[in-house]
């Protein structure tokens, strides 16, 4: 039985969706890795290198409190904007790859790039509205924010895969989530936090290893101060790339599983209609 047939005939369990997501990831690993190295990794390298240089060459004790707060704010805001854009681009591409695989369509890199350019602006602006509304809902009583985030979770999939725009994308998401809030809630929050815990643990181990290695290299008699600083930058860069690669692996499997859940909800909503 094909994955499309499985999604159509029954409601798929959440654990099974994760396993399906992993299977889709492995069968499309060449396309996904090409996407990661061509689009995502260059942005990540620039971002990590930029942050590393600031941390190494800016002495916060000497520049004063005001300027220090400005630089710290800059360090937080700029990477956050970069990460949102990178994640959105990656999400669009993975959605297209998964959709093509499920429907037995050959994956074209040109089609993926075309979909990124046609969807990116709409998703970023609607995503801003989504995040602001979730934040406001959480500030009120938390529960309204969670309910809003669950009901409107698939606005991005509606834009990418169903060419919905604006409020129509939110309405499409609410229509397929209706009656399935529990499944979507568990998938969005439980599995996301589990993946983050794994990432934090593995990332922490990697950082400790590279930190010990950096300290050891600094103790070598032939290592100059400038040389040690350069090595520290490189080790920080490598550690950051490995950590983010692991994060993107976990997130990719979750994204694919979430798209499969989108299809599953959609098929059964159509059957009910």
Mean pLDDT figure? 80
State the oligomer: single chain
Fraction in helix: over 70%
Strand residue content:
under 5%
Distance between the termini: 25 Å
Largest β sheet strand count, sense and barrel closure = none
Low-confidence stretches: none
What's the tally of helices?
11
Helix/strand/pairing category: mainly alpha
Order of helices and strands: HHHHHHHHHHH
Broad shape: globular
Radius of gyration: 21 Å
Number of strands: 0
Structure description:
The model has no long low-confidence stretch (mean pLDDT 80). α8 packs across α9. This protein has eleven helices and no strands. The chain is mostly helical and 273 residues long. Helix content is 87%, strand content 0%. The chain is globular and about 70 Å long. It has helices at 3-9, 14-27, 29-57, 60-63, 65-102, 109-140, 143-151, 155-162, 167-177, 181-218, 225-272.
């Amino acid at each position: 039985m094909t994955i499309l047939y499985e999604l159509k005939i029954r409601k798929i369990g959440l654990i099974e969706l994760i396993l399906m997501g992993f299977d889709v990831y492995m069968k499309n690993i060449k396309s996904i890795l090409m996407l990661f190295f061509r689009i995502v990794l260059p942005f990540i390298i620039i971002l990590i290198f930029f942050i590393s240089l600031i941390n190494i060459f800016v002495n916060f004790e000497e520049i004063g409190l005001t300027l220090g707060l400005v630089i710290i704010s800059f360090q937080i805001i700029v990477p956050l904007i970069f990460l949102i854009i990178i994640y959105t681009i990656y999400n669009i591409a993975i959605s297209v790859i998964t959709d093509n695989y499920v429907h037995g369509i050959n994956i074209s890199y040109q089609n993926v790039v075309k979909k990124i350019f046609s969807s990116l602006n709409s998703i970023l602006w609607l995503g801003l509205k989504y995040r602001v509304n979730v934040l406001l809902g959480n500030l009120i009583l938390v529960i309204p924010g969670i309910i809003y985030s669950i009901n409107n979770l698939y606005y991005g999939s509606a834009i990418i895969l169903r060419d919905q725009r604006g409020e129509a994308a939110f309405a499409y998401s609410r229509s397929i989530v209706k009656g399935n809030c529990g499944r979507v809630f568990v998938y969005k929050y439980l599995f996301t936090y589990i993946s983050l815990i794994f990432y934090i643990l593995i990332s922490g181990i990697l950082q400790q290893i590279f930190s010990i290695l950096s300290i050891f290299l600094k103790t070598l008699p032939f290592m100059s101060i400038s040389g040690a600083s350069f090595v520290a930058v490189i080790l920080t860069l490598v550690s950051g790339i490995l950590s983010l690669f692991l994060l993107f692996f976990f997130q990719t499997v979750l994204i694919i599983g979430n798209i499969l859940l989108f299809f599953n909800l959609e098929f059964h909503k159509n059957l009910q209609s």
